[in-house]
Design goal:
By secondary structure, the chain is mainly alpha-helical. It is 84% helix and 0% strand. The chain has one domain. Helix 2 packs across helix 6 (135-168), helix 2 crosses helix 11 and helix 7 (175-213) runs antiparallel to helix 8.
């Protein structure tokens, strides 16, 4: 009877915990985003702290630098973006007419009949409506952005005490290992933020320049759109290419083909140069692990889930490699291999991520 009661209480506790997490899932996601963001800027904070800056002042200085960069960027781009968006919205009927004319010519030449007018009208109308109503989502984004900044600040200030508390619960002979594991988890999660930012910047600049050279409408918007789309896993590259190609159809089908080739080359170069250099170095996740993480995250929480899936998967990978695998090796009597897996040699970048005393992650 005691065993049954204990089992029932455990099951009820698990169910209650799952129910509670489901109710506060949106808050948990924001907190997780804040932690990933905070780990992304931690190297900048540590660099200032090594110059004897107090930690709160170092964090504040990094925030000021980031906000100043965003302010300058917005100041330089807001007027071109607004004017190009207005021009793009005003020219939507002409773009629709040109595309339908091109499609009808294809129908005549290849002798097929598809009623695409309704679909094109609906798609372009929806796109035009998005341009007019995009301001409605900006307020929510701004609020969440500042909430992430506040939570990230609190995490950077208080995370070391939490880490020291967690490490202190571990046996003394394993405390150095626990510190290294926590630091590596933070390094991997923060590395995802830095790698994504570098990759998005590279794709956005290349797409914007290529769009300007090809004389496409609204090259600045296309560059910004491609850069933002580049941060979206799996489908981001396709979406970033699709927008310039669709606008190129307003010039002509040959121009659309040329645009598709140019944008495809940009994505291929990015996938084979920038991504391996910045992503693989920061995360070291196998391709299968990345795909599975994205599928699971996207299924559970859509876009936010897919964005957080990779850094969470990187953290889980560290736990598996440095805790679970050594335990399995030790249970098999393979003690040397277990020690080597747990106390593996750190990369130079990870060694400088923080001292073993806990000043880093």
């Amino acid at each position: 009877m005691r065993t049954l009661v204990t089992a029932a209480l455990i099951v009820l506790g698990v169910v209650g915990l799952v129910f509670l997490l489901a109710q506060i899932l949106s808050i948990v996601l924001i907190v997780l985003i804040a932690i990933v963001f905070a780990e992304g800027i931690r190297p900048l904070v540590l660099r200032l702290m090594r110059r004897r800056w107090p930690q709160p002042l170092a964090i504040f200085a990094v925030y000021v630098g980031l906000l100043a960069f965003l302010a300058v960027l917005i100041t330089l781009l807001v007027q071109p973006i607004v004017s190009e968006a207005q021009q793009l919205a005003a020219n939507f009927p002409a773009y629709q007419s040109n595309f339908l004319k091109f499609f009808h010519n294809l129908e005549t030449q290849f002798h097929f009949n598809v009623d695409i007018t309704k679909q094109v009208t609906g798609a372009l109308g929806a796109a035009q409506q998005i341009l007019f109503t995009i301001g409605a989502t900006i307020f929510s984004i701004v609020v969440n952005f500042f909430l992430v900044l506040v939570l990230g600040f609190l995490w950077l200030v208080s995370s070391e005490r939490l880490k020291h508390f967690t490490v202190d619960l571990v046996p003394i002979r394993r405390q150095d290992l626990a510190t290294d594991i926590l630091r590596e988890i933070g390094f991997r999660m923060g590395g995802f933020v830095r790698a994504t930012a570098i990759n998005s910047l590279a794709v956005g600049v290349a797409t914007g320049v290529a769009s300007a050279v090809l004389h496409l409408p609204s090259p600045i918007l296309l560059g910004i759109f491609a850069g933002l789309a580049g941060a979206i896993p799996i489908v981001g590259a396709t979406v970033g290419v699709a927008a310039p190609v669709l606008l190129a159809f307003t010039i002509g089908p040959g121009w659309a083909l040329l645009t598709g080739v140019v944008m495809g080359v940009i994505q291929i170069i990015d996938a084979n140069t920038v991504v391996p250099i910045v992503m693989n170095r920061a995360l070291s996740l196998p391709a299968l692990g990345v795909v599975l993480a994205l599928l699971i995250g996207g299924t559970l929480q859509g876009l936010i889930g897919s964005l957080l899936a990779v850094p969470v998967a990187a953290a889980i990978q560290v736990l598996i490699q440095r805790i679970l695998v050594p335990v399995i090796y030790a249970s098999q009597g393979r003690y040397d291999e277990a020690h080597a897996a747990a106390y593996r040699t750190l990369t130079p970048a990870l060694k400088t991520a923080g001292a073993r005393s806990g000043t880093g992650t």
